[in-house]
Amino acid sequence: MDSILKIYDVKWTSNTAGPSPDGNRRTEIFIRGCKKAAEGNPCNGCFNPKLWNDTDTAIGRPPREIAEMVDEHAPNKFVTIVGGEPLDQVRPLAELVSWLKFYGFHIILFTHYTLEEIKIATVADEEYGDDYLALFQNVDVLVDGEYDASQRIYDDEAGDGLHDAIGSANQVVWDIRGWRKGDSGTIDGLRAGDLAGLYIC
């Protein structure tokens, strides 16, 4: 059986999903479900509690079909994937980003997991380790870490690709293109609270 990715919605044009040279317009894909929240431990002040449950009204589609739909309807080649928690569906997510990259998209991924946790999973998780590796062959920017309302920096009118996209200062922005070069040591990360803005040229 082909893998299925449970999504909640797709926002074709968002100006609050990260930077792009096209006036910060990006397509935003909302992934359904968050195991952490479902177990009673959501991020403090989570933006999207309606996405915690991965069963009610979930739209399950093959990753290739979702990518084809995005390629057909997106206004440009910039996409952001949020949740819920996207990495709770890492196998179909890895397929989705592979297809999105095939269609030429720049990809930002938000997750409450830290990059260090993900790097450990690539080795320690016998079932999904290869899926984590495959994921990072295609994602361009990772924003990691739990949202913390006490460190909120989000301002949907900021217009800088950072404060109108990232929730709290503790989250880290990683340029993970080094993974595609086979050299994870080249990954650069900066804490969102230490940045003035986020731009893609």
Quick rundown:
With 201 residues, this protein is of the alpha/beta class. It contains 5 helices and 8 strands, in the order ββαβαβαβααβββ.
In words, what does this structure look like?
This protein is of the alpha/beta class and 201 residues long. The chain has helices spanning 35-38, 63-73, 90-102, 115-124, 129-135, and strands at residues 5-14, 26-31, 59-61, 78-82, 106-110, 141-144, 172-175, 188-191. An 8-stranded mixed β-sheet has the order 3-1-2-4-5-6-7-8. The longest helix has 13 residues, at 90-102. The protein is globular.
How would the blueprint of this fold be written?
Layout: E1 5-14, E2 26-31, H1 35-38, E3 59-61, H2 63-73, E4 78-82, H3 90-102, E5 106-110, H4 115-124, H5 129-135, E6 141-144, E7 172-175, E8 188-191
Parallel strand pairs: 2-4, 4-5, 5-6
Antiparallel strand pairs: 1-2, 1-3, 6-7, 7-8
Helix pairs in contact: 2-3, 3-5, 4-5
Strand content: 15-25%
Helix content range: 10-25%
Secondary-structure element sequence? Answer: EEHEHEHEHHEEE
Distance from first to last alpha carbon: 40 Å
Inertia-based shape: globular
Low-confidence parts lasting 5 or more residues at pLDDT below 50? Answer: none
Key features of this structure:
201 residues, alpha/beta, 8-stranded mixed sheet, 5 helices, 22% helix
